[in-house]
# Entry
Amino acid sequence: MKTVFVVGAGPAGMFAARKVALAGFNAVLFNRDVKPGGLAEYGIYPLKDKMKFGLRKQFAQILDLPNVYYFGNVKIGNGYDLTIADLDAMRPSAVIYTCGAQGAHELGLPGEHSKGVYAAKDFVYHYNQLPPYASQDFSTGRRIGIIGIGNVAIDIARWLLQDSPSRNTEEVTIIARRGPVEIKFDKKEIGYVIRHIVPEELTAELDRVRERCARVDEDVSPEAIFAEHFPMLNEEDFTSIPPRLSFRFLSSPTAVIASPDGRIAQLEVGDNDLVLRPDGSTKPVPNGQKAVLEIDTLIFAIGDMHDEQLGLPMGPNGYATQADPDHPDEPVFQVWDPIHSCALAGRFVAGWARRASTGLVGIARHDGELGAEQAIEYLQSQPEGKTLSPEEIFDSLEGRGLHPVTKADLSLLGAAEQQEAEKHHLNYFKYSDNQSMFEAIERERSAVASSRA
Ligand SMILES: Cc1cc2nc3c(=O)[nH]c(=O)nc-3n(C[C@H](O)[C@H](O)[C@H](O)COP(=O)(O)OP(=O)(O)OC[C@H]3O[C@@H](n4cnc5c(N)ncnc54)[C@H](O)[C@@H]3O)c2cc1C
# Structure
């Protein structure tokens, strides 16, 4: 049977595997994390229970398909568990890379590597209990700056303002290089934290940038901006609650100032003017004014980038693909080899691995399915495969000293977590380190074996 390897079991990979399996081929998932789900499990806000439960159910149904195989706790890439060459040596008929965007942008700022400075994804992985981030130090102080003004920034602000167990937040400041007109978060997301905004403070900040925005014809009067992005602030009975959520527009970080213990103590920002581009969009340009903000924790929520260590050829926007010049706007899934100027036969990228940090789960799902369609089309012209069988793959992984987690293991883990949830009267329980998951799987396996004996 022809077999497609799918690298990464987030929404893109899971729905790609489903499509491949329903077309009658084997789909073999390799996933870095023990559990499937990617950012749907370890990124989406912990309290969005309904969405998370719904997605977990769909992922479980996909894993139930008899021709879908799963190997969790296996990371692909140079210097990781298996290289791409190791995968290719197992002779897959095609490979779809759906491993998301695991790298972080670095701005090259002085002090950027100080303690207390985090990439949003790592921070989000931490509070969503993904090993090993769950047990690493992501301590926060009282005044936290978040660079970026999209939904991820608001999710993190929500955690810090309302749900972080440390409960020491006094103020979260969202810092954006452009103006209020270019706010990227949705009304629904800001709705979760709007009570932390002090309307007079936001008005003062809008006044501070008003003249600079007016030069590019942007109306940032409180009337316009409240109506467009913060309608609740206009409600008569609106009252603010601590801790505070504030904004600083038209500012870019220029240096992290660390204290003698190496932890961020302040943030220097440079103010920006806006210039109009020919297409009507604006570009922030430093105007030479600097300010120092009293910030003791900094989180960069400026989008993710691809992990170069995976080993796929890189292009200007991540893993290399080549647009068809006749259809430049059509999505391209096939990986391109820029050195030999040719497409890589049977190798595809989809989801955030194709376009980093773009869109919601539904978009990643759709992208995974489109990538799978291309793989399926490619398979039609290919001879029967000689791929290692799932049993041989398992043995080969174990032979390398790896600890692959199978579909059967995931069922045992699910049962163990369900019992923990019931014991502690929780909606859901999840282990936050791999060792505890392995032990729970073994305990459950022994319990099942002895109940059968
Ligand atoms: C903070 C945050 C909040 C979000 N909230 C929402 C929301 O509320 N609603 C919504 O619809 N969308 C939300 N999203 C977006 C959604 O999570 C993404 O659209 C979606 O998860 C992307 O799917 P993906 O499969 O492309 O990548 P990912 O979800 O990142 O999955 C990648 C998978 O690949 C695996 N992997 C990574 N590297 C390797 C490797 N080297 N080898 C093997 N496996 C690897 C990972 O373990 C993971 O399972 C949010 C995103 C973030 C960052």
In short: The first helix runs from residue 11 to 22.
